[in-house]
Amino acid sequence: MACRQLWASRAASYLRISVFNRSFSSVLKDLKYADSHEWVKVDGNSATVGITDHAQDHLGDVVYVELPEVGVTVTQGGSFGAVESVKATSDINSPVSGKVVEVNEQLNSSPALVNSSPYEDGWIIKVEMSDNGELNNLMDSEKYSKFCEEEDSKH
User: Fold this and answer.
1) Is a pLDDT exceeding 50 seen at residue 39?
2) How far is CA 64 from CA 94, 114, 121, 145, 149, in A?
3) pTM of the predicted protein model
């Protein structure tokens, strides 16, 4: 068995391809993360929310995103929508409380943006935060990376 792995590793090296899966998906430093795998980018009192690269990677190809209505109030940890993929349907929880001021309408026609660009084009909602102190309940990039590693090691 070890001989096969060595041969495969050498062959992959010669062909310049990787034989190892990535340990987990990308995590951006300037964001905050919930343990339910949503991210939030804060700009003053405004928060942009989406699902993490780790979450979309585990979900597989996203085929539908259920968006809330503009004006709806969301609460930290509360569900505000869902993401449906070829594998499963998952609730999307808000990492912050406040009022939804914008939804990403592009996701209605291109839900796969959640897969291809989870931190940019695949954002889901923008919220006018009601309590900036809630950000202290979220993880920074380092803690979230460790959280994902521990979670993946359990499966």
Assistant:
1) yes
2) 18, 10, 15, 27, 27
3) 0.80
